[in-house]
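Before the break, one more example. Copy the sequence into your notebook; we will annotate it together after we see the structure.
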Amino acid sequence: MSEAIHLLPGAVDGAIAALRSLLGEDRVVTDRAELEFHSQDVYRAGLLPAAIIRPRDTDELSRALRLIANAQLPIVPRGGGMSYTDGYLPSRPDSIMVDLLAMSRVQVIDAEDCFVTVECGATWKELFDALAPHGVRTPYYGPLSGLRSTIGGALSQGSIFLGSGRYGPVAESVIGLDVVLADGRVLSLGSHAIAHGKPFFRQFGPDTLGMFLGDCGALGIKTRATFRLIRPQPESRFLSFTFREPAALFAAMAEVARAEVVSEQFGFDPGLQAVRMKRSSLAEDAKALGAVIRGSGGVIKGLAEGAKVVMAGRGFLEEGTFSVHLSLDGRDVVDADAKAAVVRRIMARGGTEVENTVPKVMRANPFAELNSMLGPNGERWVPVHGTVSFSGALGMYEACEQVFKRHETAMHRFAIERGYLVCTVGGAGTLLEPVLYWPDARQAFHERVLDAGYLSRLPTYAADPQAAEAVASLRADLATAFMQQGAVSFQIGKFYRYQEGLAPSAAGLLADLKRLVDPDGRMNPGAIGL
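Here is what the structure looks like once it is written out:
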């Protein structure tokens, strides 16, 4: 842990004045309401930053960080704001927050040599939309929060979902990176380190890029990234199945993952499944139906697919069952059907095939509004997660169930509900994400980020500090259970017990790297335990 820095009198005001001179008045924000909003994440509020800066490019950021270094102020990078693990919440007073959303340009699309270079303030939806006319996309192409989540946020926090069933997490798709250190130095890493030619290949000598991925902004600020590009396979299939028992579900999902035939594979337990079926509104159903029709290729086929969605309604998932939903892609009809046959053969051993509405709608509208941050009755929402080996999924689930059993009295008292999201991550393992819902006051963050029409239909609650404390205790025990089971987590932030889960040699090397690139400990203090 780095020691707190004692500031000289007037250092904060002097730094803010210098930053305004460098960036312009409108690029340095000290308005109280804006500071309060930016001091909140999806889950809770932290300390207010002293100011928020909004640089327009890497050079501006570099010069700004040199000014901040002169004043010895803490720095906190912020992307799209989708963290729920204190990832960008200031842990020290007088921090300068760096908002990267103005740095969102897609700089190079090279479909012939299969790479794209984009500034890290771009959202995943912006990148996806920019690539679509060229007939290409990145292998991993975003989280479900990609409407707001940024490229830099995902690279800093770690991220899975769209494309992860086949291509793994975001770190496996990036090949180049620019990082600005706390003192303003700019590092060119991976393919960006090659002085001559195109940034087409990541591994050229030691993989220095990898050390800055998943750092939660503790080592530097990511400003520009290069990703591999693929040409999406044109023929898609969507499948859904229900299971009575979690053991059968986990076993089937693992075998499908090992078969390497799916692009996305995700499942729900009965609790989360019930929440998802209640959440959507008729207006959202209409939007989803329109997206399915538009994305099906041809008016007649689109109308037919849309009719299937309407006929299926929301009653196709039987109450009390687990469900799994899969999207797969093939080179042609024969290839796609062959992959679907593999999935059906595996799933038939313990599951029952049902309507494929869920994966079909998700693929048609991958970057939907972020309304899942509140439950269908306005409840607060927060997840905890970890990824384990395929063989460890059932044991991890049972360990989480034991945690819930120990907290049963408090959960009943404060009406804390829970469910699970399950995903497979490439051929590596199974991600298990317990999700908590409880009645409590929503934050200014929710009021600004969520769809106004959705919010207007939800009830509101008074703040309940005792319920919030019960949820915090439950989350902490779940995180401990994941650590004890050897799970690995994304979005470590300042929440997960990351350092305790490391071998001493790995923890020591990380501390040495932190001292090398940030000797004063000013870059996002507290992130990943540094």
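The radius of gyration is 23 Å. The domain at 106-228 is CATH 3.30.465.10 (Uridine Diphospho-n-acetylenolpyruvylglucosamine Reductase; domain 3). Try to locate both features in your own notes.
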